[in-house]
Design brief:
Blueprint: H1 2-18, H2 20-39, H3 47-72, H4 80-96, E1 99-101, E2 106-108, H5 112-135, H6 141-160, H7 181-184, E3 186-187, E4 190-191, H8 192-210, H9 212-222, H10 224-229, H11 234-260, H12 271-281, H13 293-313, H14 317-359
Antiparallel strand pairs: 1-2, 3-4
Helix pairs in contact: 1-14, 2-13, 3-8, 3-11, 3-12, 3-13, 4-5, 4-6, 4-11, 5-6, 5-11, 8-9, 9-11, 12-13
C-alpha cells in the first residue's frame, strides 16, 4: 500500500513538473487578466494586445529555438545577443551607406533580399567560429561564446562608431527599399516575425524528431563519449548546432532593425538570458540531452507574457529584472528537481528488475 502511494506521488510530481511551463503560462495569463482589469481597466486578452505579445515572443522564441539545440548538446551560447546587434548594424550600414568601392570611385547598394542573405550568412559564420573554437581548440562553450559575445559587440560598435543607423527605408533610385516590410508586414493578420517563428519551430521539430541529425544532438548531450564510440561525428554536429544558433540570432537582428527602421549597436544586450530562460522554462536540461522545441516556444510565451504584463502594470524596470531573475532560478531549480526524481525512479526500476531476476 505504501509503495503504491509513493509511486502515485512520483507520477503526480513528474506530471506536474513536465506540465510546469503550460501551468505557469496559464497562471500568468489569469493573474495579469485579473490585475489589469481591476487596477487599470485594461483587457489583457484583447486581440491587439495578444498580437503585440506574439511579436515580442517571436523575438525570444526564434533565438531560443537555436539555443535549445545548443543546450541539448550540453553547450551554451552567450554570443547570441551580440550577433543580434551586429546583424542589425551590418544591415543598417548596407542600406544607408552601401559598400564603398574606392578602386571604382563609386558605392554599391545591394537589394534588400541580398542584404538579408549577407546578414544571415554572417550570423551563421560566427556560429561556425564558435563551434570550431569548442570542437577543434577544446575551448569551453561558456568561455568561447563569452569571448565571441565581446568580439561581435565590439564590431557592432566599430561599424558606426557607436552611432545609430536611422531611417532604414532605402531609396527607390538605389533599389534598396522594402526592408521595413520584414518587421511591419503581415500575412493573414499575423506579423511576418510570428510566421517566421512558426516556420522555424516546425523545421526544428522535424529535425529533432524525424532526422538522424536530431537524434545525434540528443545523443551528444546524453553522453558525448558514448556518442563518439557509436560513430556519431560529434565535432561536425556540434559545429552545425552553433551555426544554426548564429543563423537564428542574425534573423532576430534583422527583424528588430526592420521593426524599428533603425539599427543600434546595443541592440540585443542580455537577450541571451531570455533565450536560455525560455529553453530551460520549456524543460530543456542545462546538462544536455533532455528538452523539446515545443516546450521552448511555450517557455518563450511565458517570458513574453511576464515581460509585457509587468510593463502594462507599470512595474519598475529594476523590479522586472528581479522578477525575471527569480523566474530563471526557479526554472533551474525545477529542472534539477526533475532530474533527481528521474534518477530516483530509474533506481527504483533497476531494484525491481534485480529482484525479479533473483526470484527467477
Amino acid at each position: 500500500m505504501k509503495n503504491s502511494i509513493k509511486n502515485n506521488d512520483f507520477s503526480i510530481s513528474m506530471i506536474l513538473l513536465k506540465m510546469r511551463t503550460i501551468i505557469a503560462l496559464i497562471l500568468l495569463v489569469i493573474v495579469f487578466t485579473v490585475l489589469l482589469n481591476t487596477t487599470r481597466g485594461i483587457n489583457f486578452l484583447h486581440p491587439v494586445n495578444l498580437m503585440t505579445i506574439a511579436k515580442h515572443v517571436a523575438i525570444t522564441g526564434i533565438m531560443a529555438i537555436g539555443m535549445t539545440f545548443v543546450i541539448l548538446t550540453g553547450g551554451i551560447d552567450l554570443s547570441v545577443g551580440s550577433i543580434v546587434g551586429l546583424s542589425g548594424m551590418i544591415a543598417g550600414g548596407l542600406i544607408n551607406e552601401g559598400i564603398v568601392l574606392n578602386m571604382f570611385g563609386g558605392t554599391l547598394y545591394l537589394h534588400v533580399p541580398l542584404i538579408i542573405l549577407v546578414c544571415l550568412l554572417l550570423g551563421t559564420a560566427i556560429g561556425g567560429v564558435n563551434g570550431l573554437l569548442i570542437t577543434r581548440l577544446n575551448v569551453a562553450p561558456f568561455i568561447g561564446t563569452l569571448g565571441m559575445m565581446y568580439i561581435a559587440r565590439g564590431f557592432a560598435n566599430i561599424r558606426s562608431g557607436g552611432a545609430t543607423f536611422p531611417n532604414l527605408q532605402g531609396k527607390p533610385e538605389l533599389g534598396n527599399t522594402g526592408f521595413p516590410i520584414l518587421g511591419a508586414g503581415r500575412f493573414l493578420g499575423m506579423p511576418f516575425s510570428v510566421w517566421l517563428m512558426i516556420l522555424l519551430m516546425i523545421i526544428a521539430i522535424y529535425i529533432a524528431k524525424k532526422t538522424p541529425f536530431g537524434r545525434h544532438i540528443y545523443a551528444i548531450g546524453g553522453n558525448q563519449r558514448a556518442a563518439e564510440l557509436s560513430g556519431i561525428q560529434v565535432k561536425k554536429v556540434t559545429t552545425l548546432v552553433y551555426m544554426f544558433s548564429g543563423f537564428a540570432s542574425a534573423l532576430v537582428g534583422l527583424i528588430i532593425a526592420s521593426q524599428l527602421v533603425a539599427a543600434h549597436p546595443a541592440t540585443g544586450e542580455s537577450y541571451e538570458m531570455n533565450a536560455i530562460a525560455a529553453a530551460v522554462l520549456g524543460g530543456t536540461s542545462l546538462s544536455g540531452g533532455i528538452g523539446s522545441i515545443g516546450g521552448t516556444v511555450i517557455g518563450a510565451f511565458v517570458i513574453g507574457v511576464l515581460s509585457d504584463g509587468l510593463v502594462m502594470l507599470g512595474v519598475s524596470e529594476f523590479w522586472q529584472n528581479v522578477i525575471k531573475g527569480l523566474v530563471i532560478l526557479a526554472a533551474v531549480i525545477l529542472d534539477q528537481t526533475q532530474q533527481r526524481i528521474n534518477a530516483r525512479s530509474s533506481e527504483t526500476r533497476d531494484k525491481k528488475q534485480r529482484k525479479i531476476v533473483k526470484s527467477a
